[in-house]
Amino acid sequence: MRRLDKRTSLMCVEFRLSVPHDLGLDEVRAELIAISSAHQTDVALQPDNVFRRQKRLVVFDMDSTLIQQEVIDEIARATGIEEQVAAITERAMQGEMDFGESLAARVALLAGTPVSVLEGVKQRLVFTEGAHYLCRALKSAGFKLAVISGGFLPLAKHVKTELGLDYAFANQLAVSADGSVLVGETVGPVVDAARKAELLEVIAQAEGIAIDQVVAVGDGANDLLMLAKASLGIAFNAKPRVQEQARARINQKSLANILYLMGYSESEASELQLLG
């Protein structure tokens, strides 16, 4: 047993367990999650192998993960159609609508919106607590970092710059010939659940990183394939369906707690901040 935090109140403890070979990890994980839910704690079960402390790539969802908002809702708020767009967004995140269908429906509602609205949205983005701390620590430790979003590329690039990430992928909004307004369509491949998982693998291959060394973090139904593809998929304050299916989950305010799941103590995380 190793305590990872150094606070007055206990925050995180790491246990090393011996599990009988005839007992499936999925079965153990399900029982631990049931216990943790009953006691309002978070439990993550991971194989104790060399790859746990040798992760090299972390891929994040953007909306409601790295940032607190859903960017399409913020664009809609600026144009007075927030309620219509938010209703579609929620159905998509709960897995009640196909993501591609829901994206097309929401983007169509944005037709005629001035492109300048995107600059205003950038200024209103609120980063999730611990986002900067986590990314600084990971970059200091030599990680490659990426945001893969079902949102929109101008906002994803802004988040990439603010957090010092290495990659940003998202949907591209089509604009009018004079570049002044949105036309209500996207351009190029839609970044849906399948595309997110595909891009995770593409980045890993480009960097020469094994899938066993990849972490993914997300909150919505369209993150499930990406979370399943990574060796450590973390549901962060996620929708119920995502929490049920992800290998690990965190229901805490701060993204910095992800460092505990990756085996870093609070002291080690603080040392990495000094290197950043």
Which features characterize this protein?
alpha/beta, two-stranded antiparallel sheet, single chain, 276 residues, 12 helices
Your description of this structure?
This protein has 276 residues and is α/β, with parallel strands linked by helices. It has helices spanning 25-38, 71-79, 82-93, 99-108, 117-124, 131-140, 153-163, 193-207, 224-229, 240-245, 258-261, 266-275, and strands at residues 2-3, 13-14, 57-60, 144-152, 167-175, 182-187, 214-218, 232-236, 248-250. The relative contact order is 0.17. The model has no long low-confidence stretch (mean pLDDT 91).
**H and E string:** EEHEHHHHHEHEEHEHEHEHH
Choose one word for the global shape. globular
Low-confidence stretches: none
What topology, given as strand order, has the largest sheet? 6-5-4-3-7-8-9
- First-to-last CA distance: 29 Å
Helicity level, as a percent range?
40-55%
Task: Give a short account of the largest sheet.
Answer: 7 strands, mixed
Radius of gyration computed on alpha carbons: 19 Å
Number of contiguous helices: 12
Strand content: 15-25%
Tally of strands: 9
Structural class: alpha/beta
Mean pLDDT: 91
Q: Would you kindly provide a brief summary of this structure?
A:
With 276 residues, the chain is an alpha/beta fold. The protein contains twelve helices and nine strands. It starts with a strand and ends with a helix.
Task: Describe the SSE topology.
Layout: E1 2-3, E2 13-14, H1 25-38, E3 57-60, H2 71-79, H3 82-93, H4 99-108, H5 117-124, H6 131-140, E4 144-152, H7 153-163, E5 167-175, E6 182-187, H8 193-207, E7 214-218, H9 224-229, E8 232-236, H10 240-245, E9 248-250, H11 258-261, H12 266-275
Parallel strand pairs: 3-4, 3-7, 4-5, 7-8, 8-9
Antiparallel strand pairs: 1-2, 5-6
